[in-house]
From TrEMBL:
PROSITE patterns: GNAT. Keywords: Transferase. This is GNAT family N-acetyltransferase. InterPro entries: Acyl_CoA_acyltransferase, GNAT_dom. GO terms for molecular function: acyltransferase activity, transferring groups other than amino-acyl groups.
């Protein structure tokens, strides 16, 4: 067994990694991928002879805070390759570092590995989307939306500012938007204004000519989850985070 660390990968390394991911996709597609252009990323590769058995990508999110995506060859699981990468990684990082491992929420092999290695469940991020092409809001809402110069949108209810939100357009499809930073101010919460505001936002975005909304929220955020599902949002993927603190 041989483990190497690289920030820049050779074409052969990339092809071997892609081969492992493609084999995984045939078994079960996972909403995780390697961005080989991300300069924050360091790769740990575990070889048996010249064959790549397991690969781990380490992303530095903040000082001493990291995220990890890993794949192991589907024919060579439960042979200690990923654990060897994890041990190698742990020796590389400073004491006190927080490492979050990402896996698809319902993917049994990854969950079993996290349990076997005593990784601690942290949270689950749910990606949701709404198709606006057939979406209809029939009633008139008492909500107005105004944009400021910093691309922040402010929500008004009966002439009172009650919240704000942001969104940006995806480069691969100008009709798709990613919705984020939705906030109803504390004094206006628990009054039904969150759902009412979201209905107005959906109508506002559709009138801009957009055809799909994507958003992300914590699965544990039950009130927000209920609002979005009630309005017709569907889950597109769910990523769970399991954490480990380096001693």
């Amino acid at each position: 067994m041989n483990i190497i660390k690289r920030r820049v990968l050779s074409e052969d390394m990339i092809n071997q990694i892609n081969s492992i991911v493609e084999a995984q996709d045939k078994e079960q597609h996972l909403p995780l991928y390697f961005d080989f252009s991300d300069e924050r990323c360091a790769y740990y590769l575990c070889y048996e002879n010249e064959n790549l058995m397991s690969v781990l990508a380490l992303f530095e999110i903040d000082t001493n805070v990291y995220e990890v995506i890993a794949f192991t060859d589907i024919n060579n699981r439960k042979k200690g390759y990923f654990k060897s990468l994890l041990d190698h990684l742990s020796n590389d990082l400073k004491s006190g570092a927080k490492v979050s491992f990402l896996c698809e929420r319902n993917y049994t092999p990854a969950i079993a590995t996290a349990d076997r290695l005593s990784l601690i469940y942290d949270c689950t991020e749910t990606m949701m989307e709404l198709d606006l092409s057939t979406y209809v809001i029939e009633k008139k809402l008492d909500i107005d939306i105004f944009e400021d110069d910093d691309d922040i949108y402010y929500i008004y209810y009966r002439d009172e500012e009650i919240g704000s939100f942001n969104f940006y357009t995806f480069s691969f499809d100008i009709n798709d938007i990613y919705f984020h930073s939705f906030n109803i101010y504390d004094e206006y919460r628990n009054k039904g204004l969150g759902k009412l505001s979201m209905m107005a936002i959906i109508s506002f975005i559709k009138n801009l000519g957009k055809t799909k909304i994507h958003l992300q929220l914590l699965l544990e955020n039950k009130p927000a989850y209920k609002i979005y599902t009630d309005l017709g949002f569907c889950i597109s993927s769910e990523i769970s985070y399991y954490k480990k603190f380096i001693q």
